[in-house]
UniProtKB/TrEMBL annotation, chain A:
One GO cellular component term noted in the UniProt record for this chain: endoplasmic reticulum membrane
Protein name: ER lumen protein-retaining receptor
Pfam families (UniProt xref): ER_lumen_recept (PF00810)
Segments crossing the lipid bilayer: 55-76, 97-113, 119-138, 179-199
Compartments reported by the entry: Endoplasmic reticulum membrane
Length: 212, 10
C-alpha cells in the first residue's frame, strides 16, 4: 500500500458517500445514470468474487464488501425507493455496446485463461467504460447539480490516483500490471473533458454547464 | 514480477 493507492481508495469511498448523500438529501436520483450504477454492480461482483478464495488483507476484504454492498444499495434506492425521480428517457446509452467488447477484450487479454482471471479482466475493462452512460446523460442534459459533479470528480480522481501508484510500484516492487494500467489510463482519459469543465467552472463557483 | 497471481488492488 502506498499513499497514491490509499488516496485513490479514499476518493472512491468518498464518491459513494457523496452519491448517497445527494440521493438522500434531495430525495431524488435525478441526473444519475441507472445504467452506469448497474454496470458498477456487475464490475464489483465480477472482480470481488475472489473474496471467496483469495485473502489479501482485512482492509482489502472490507473495502470489497463495502463496494459490493453500497453499489447494490444504490440500485435499490434508484429502482425502488426513489423510482419516480429517475427519468429513463434520458438514460439511453446501449450498455450491450460496452459489455460485448469488454468480454472480447477479457477473452484476449488476461493473465491466465480460466474463469476467475477472465472475469477479473472483464471487470477491469468494464470499469474503464462504465461511466460512459453517465457522461452521455450529462452531455444530453448539458448541466448537472454541483453535488453530482463532486461525485463524478471523486470517482474520476480514484483511478487517476492509481496511475502514480502503478509508477511507484514499478520502481519499488518491479510490479507491472499491463491490463490494469491500460484500462486505468483509458478510464482516466474518459474524464478529461469533465475534469476540464469541473476545474474551470464548478471549482470557480459557477454552475456546471456544457457549451451548447 | 508478474501480477497474475496477486490482484491485491481494488
Amino acid at each position: 500500500m502506498n499513499i497514491f493507492r490509499f488516496l485513490g481508495d479514499l476518493s472512491h469511498l468518498a464518491s459513494i458517500f457523496i452519491l448517497l448523500h445527494k440521493i438522500q438529501t434531495t430525495r431524488s436520483c435525478r441526473g444519475i445514470s441507472f445504467r452506469t450504477q448497474a454496470l458498477y454492480v456487475v464490475v464489483f461482483i465480477a472482480r470481488y468474487l475472489d473474496l471467496f478464495f483469495r485473502y489479501v488483507s482485512l482492509y482489502n476484504s472490507a473495502m470489497k464488501l463495502f463496494f459490493i454492498a453500497s453499489s447494490c444499495y444504490i440500485l435499490y434506492l434508484m429502482k425502488i425507493r426513489y423510482r419516480p425521480t429517475h427519468d429513463p428517457s434520458i438514460d439511453t446509452f446501449r450498455v450491450e455496446y460496452l459489455l460485448a467488447p469488454c468480454l472480447i477484450l477479457a477473452l484476449i487479454f488476461n493473465y491466465k485463461f480460466n474463469f476467475a482471471e477472465v472475469l477479473w479482466s472483464f471487470s477491469i475493462w468494464l470499469e474503464a467504460v462504465a461511466i460512459l452512460p453517465q457522461l452521455f446523460m450529462l452531455q444530453r442534459t448539458g448541466e448537472a447539480e454541483n453535488i453530482t459533479t463532486h461525485y463524478l470528480a471523486a470517482l474520476g480522481a480514484y483511478r487517476a490516483l492509481y496511475i502514480p501508484n502503478w509508477i511507484y510500484r514499478y520502481f519499488t516492487e518491479g510490479l507491472v500490471d499491463p491490463i490494469a494500467v491500460t484500462a486505468g489510463i483509458v478510464q482516466t482519459g474518459l474524464y478529461l473533458d469533465f475534469f476540464y469543465v469541473y476545474f474551470t467552472k464548478v471549482l470557480q463557483g459557477q454552475k456546471f454547464e456544457l457549451p451548447a | 514480477r508478474h501480477p497474475s497471481s496477486t490482484h491485491d488492488e481494488l
